[in-house]
Here is the input.
Amino acid sequence: MRGHEVVPDEDEAVVGDSSVVARGETGEVPGIGLRASSRAVLALLSGSGPVVGLTVLIIVSWTIFSVAGPAFIGSFNLYGIGQLAALDAVLGMAQVLLVAMARMNLAIGGVAAICVSLLGFLLSSVHVPLLVALVAVIGTGIIATVLIGVVELKTGLSSFIVTLAFLSVYSGGALLVTDHANYQITSSLLNSVGSGTLFSNAICPLIAVTLVCAGALWIIYNRTSLGWKMLAVGASERAARASGVNVSRILLAAYALSGLFAAIAAVMEASYELNVNASLGQNWLLPSFIAVVLGGVALTGGEVTVVGLLLAALFYDSLQSGLTILNVPSYWLECVQGVVLLAAVVADQLRRNRRRRARPVASGRVNKPSPVGISS
Amino acid sequence: MTRVAVGRAPWMPLLATVVVASFVLAATTRSFGSSYNIFVILQAAAFDAVIGLSQMVVLAVGDLSLAVGGIGGLATVVIGNLFEVHHWPAGAALLAGIVLGTICGVVNGLIVSRTRLSGFIVTLATGAAFGGAAYGVTGSIPYSDIPSVVSAVDGGRAGVFPYLLLIALVATALVLLGFRWLQDGRSILAVGGNREAALLSGISRQRAEVVSHAASGFLAAIAAIMYMGILGSATPATGTDWLIISFAVPIIGGTALTGGEVSAVGGVVAAIALSAINDALIVLNVNTNAVTMAEGLMVLVVVLAGHFGGLRRRRDGRPSDQRSDAGAPSRAVGFSGGSGLAGER
Here is the structure.
């Protein structure tokens, strides 16, 4: 299986990589007192996200697939890859907002189930204008996700168990209320975004939506104090709190943004499906983490790479599509997903361990002392 | 630290509520109190209890496994394949499935302990790989021919008591005794309770993690065999909906998410309660999707109750949270808050 090849390739490609776009290792910075410029230099020196590695992987895999099966670079296939990658990248964004805060959101699929049910109901049963429906759906997605954040804050429970419980509450609830009803998305505007074309036959307009989302996320993380504070809390909650960051407010903002992207992803998938029902989102957990991990974002929080997410989604969906072109039965695709995620996470960890051994002082984490005496 | 929580059982209120509710339902509806219905409840409960045990042994070491369902699916398919396609004897096929499940668990444990990654992301990946392999091997078509001994045992009953309940109770007893008497069991609890203290006492963290994941894989394979008999076929879809159950049973039963404590008996009670609620919703003609929602709500309610109970204990001057990483001081239950769960430790 092709997934196995990811390990050495990515690992080697990543070692000498020093991309400017991704900004990692805020854990090195005590608190958030340092100026942006000095942080950028630090990030540059430490070498961050595997953007170069992913680019190499994409080029290599596209070459192999298009030689093995010329249909791979046909406009029909490229269109499909773009459509799926656009969705997976937004899933990754919804996940990375909380991963960067050293948390996770397992409930993205549940929020999507609510959003898509509401969208279908408003469009096909109530016949409200599209804009009104979109505002209502996105608002609902944000509120539903912020509610999870409030529960996490009020109880201090781990985000794992809270979002896991909310996943079943939301998806079970959506299925219960709609009773598995299928909604046809009748809006022609939405359909033309989801399955129309942009500039050429090979480009799905959803890609533009994703690029806008990515741009917004990049600006949040690189140009706003909210982004800095989210990373600071992710790197060290105590240090952030000590330097005057209102951790609760920042956490709720991250949940709200995560809900926003989950709702957008739900609308995106609804835009190209003929029928939608509340079971949409049931398989979103794995892709959302694949985009994050393959993109090179540490699960320990404090760093993020928007370009990495986009490239990871593109590589991942190219791989799936390429395997289909190579006549690998579709039943094996889930297994491939698992192997890719495992390879990515292990490669990433090996890379980090190596870097830590090289510069032990720089990557010491403020709030998480490593277990005494355990050599990795 | 290595105590097995049985005293002051947190599941007693739950048990009382379920018993009272069951009597009310049995009196008001015709079908709920029938002996066949009680048999069905206990049968599903036995199966849920073993899934819960499979998660519990990993929670004990302070880790978690999302691969319980994936291992169950793969074990099911391998048994079905060896028996139906390769005409292995029933015993050999079943043994192969159990061994494979255990090996899958060992693989998880080795990856987790060597890379120092969290079980969350590792088992998310391996669970998809195992479950996906089950789909790949079968091409999504179930094996309809299963060993007759499995269907006989899994469908059999003595009065209202299914034979499966006996298997679940034996498994529970073995887990309980293992944690009490076996050195590895005590090591798992020690590592789960306080990683540094265990290390300083010369306990191998790596060994404890591998053993707990191996036990989890073993139990997942047992659960898979139970499910195979209940269903009457070996389908790769086995395990796809085990995730929430696997956490609901130990958490509702009172097992700490932080590790170091297990409540095996509580798990059985929780499994019976969940199964009875499930059945009651069906008897009352509520949409079956309410079951999923109810499980999520119960997990929330129980962890919230545990959290506020933890707060009360702390005010009494008995800290309930003895984990050493005080990175997030306000966190009582759970993996010491958001930090420390994902990624490396």
